[in-house]
Amino acid sequence: MAAGKGTRLKSQLPKVLHEVGGKPLLAHVIAAATSVVPANDVYTIVGHEAGRVRAGLEATGVNFVLQAEQRGTGHALMVAREPLSAYGHVIVLSGDAPRITPQTIAHLLNFHLDEQAAMTLLSADLDNPAGYGRIIRKRSRNNSRSAEVQAIVEENSASPTQKKIHEINAGFYVFAVPKLFSHIEKLSTANPHGERYLTDMAALLRKAGQRVVAWKTENSGEVLGANTRAELASIDQQIRITKCRQLMAEGVTIFYPATCVIDNDVEVAPDTVIEPFVQILGRSRIGAGCRIRSYCVIRDSEIGHGVLIRPGCVLEEARIGPSAVLGPYSHLRPGSDIGEGAHVGNFVETKKIKLGKGSKANHLTYLGDAEIGADVNIGAGTITCNYDGRAKHTTVIEDGVFVGSDSTLVAPVRVGKGAYVAAASCVTEDVPEDALAIGRSRQIVKEGWAREKRAGRGK
């Protein structure tokens, strides 16, 4: 269910699109659901800003059902009656509880099936249950608590004794579909908001003689939703700490986990070392035996084995080959493909380039829209001029080329295999293999000019 506004967030962005752990709240819930059932069996009920929610999650492959008017959680299932009626059972998840796990969803469903229940609730024990509906379980013959639920008592209706109960209704359910829809029209709107609440199904089904049970998760944190910015921040922190612990358990060294921002979908191979104050974001993949030094930001990039990334580098949608060395303070923009053993050094910026095996661009350089071969040396201050004001053009630098410092390569241009470009040259024409290109004016020296200038006689 993902139709609500989330007014307490005070945001123009739909609640379920707010991000924790590097992706929207709803994306986490969908990922957990699609680990249990196929994506085409998942239905997301959208309402507020439905178009934005659909656009943000369309790539997940799930179905969307529009709840044009948000009249409560019970009403949300009523608008989804047509597609859901084809199923024997339906699992109902909350779109703003991103820590729910596939294991808990599967356990809840299996418990429901084993108990042959009409309705199964997910419950949890909270240290501070204030604000949540309390689970009142039916007593068995030996006076022990059974799986059956006698009632769900909301906070404002609970007695002092009931308020001391710590087991709460988490807002996740499994229903036997025929029994759900044969009683759902009876949900009352006699409440301050005039809405139909799914929690009321428990009383309706019990009154009809149907079995209502609860299964309690041991991890209470996974059922908590995010209603405020502070709660978003807390959930984000928990997801990231969990991610760091997972990576460390898999053989990754993270020196100071509390300072690192590592998104939930990141993959890192064993024996990689991540220093403090590193951000690894999106769907980045990092190989084994790498070292990522402090203050680097890596987004949606693929990094091979044995790569050294020195401090302060920024990578976005880049691919780095094995044993390459980056930085410090390199900026690799989308489309940068750095070959095995290549070096991209101090204050070098790349965009949409291929830098071949063993090639080096170590200082103060911009390389954009370029195809650079193997064992090429790019001198300090070199620029590929890829944009003519209307269109982008490609610079091709073949294997073994030496480009002297402060050179300007005006695309489209090709520098042939083994050629040299003299320092401070402006290259506007193709350079043949093994040639030397010099593109600069001849130096002129005027003896005594500076002395005459200081004396006021210079021209």
Summarize the structure.
The protein has 459 residues and is α/β, with parallel strands linked by helices. Helices cover 19% and strands 28% of the residues.
Structural class: alpha/beta
Shape: elongated
Helix content: 10-25%
Overall CATH class of the largest domain: Alpha Beta
The Rg value, from CA coordinates, equals 31 Å
Describe this structure in words.
By secondary structure, the chain is α/β, with parallel strands linked by helices. The chain folds into 3 domains: 7-223, Spore Coat Polysaccharide Biosynthesis Protein SpsA, Chain A; 250-347, Hexapeptide repeat proteins (UDP N-Acetylglucosamine Acyltransferase, domain 1); 373-459, Hexapeptide repeat proteins (UDP N-Acetylglucosamine Acyltransferase, domain 1, 3 Solenoid). Helices cover 19% and strands 28% of the residues. It contains 10 helices and 38 strands. Strands 12, 13, 15, 16, 18, 19, 21, 22, 24, 25, 27, 29, 32 and 35 form a 14-stranded parallel β-sheet that branches. A hairpin with a 5-residue loop joins strand 7 (134-139) and strand 8 (145-153). The protein is elongated and about 110 Å long. The protein starts with 18 loop residues before the first strand and ends in a 5-residue tail after the last helix. The model has no long low-confidence stretch (mean pLDDT 94).
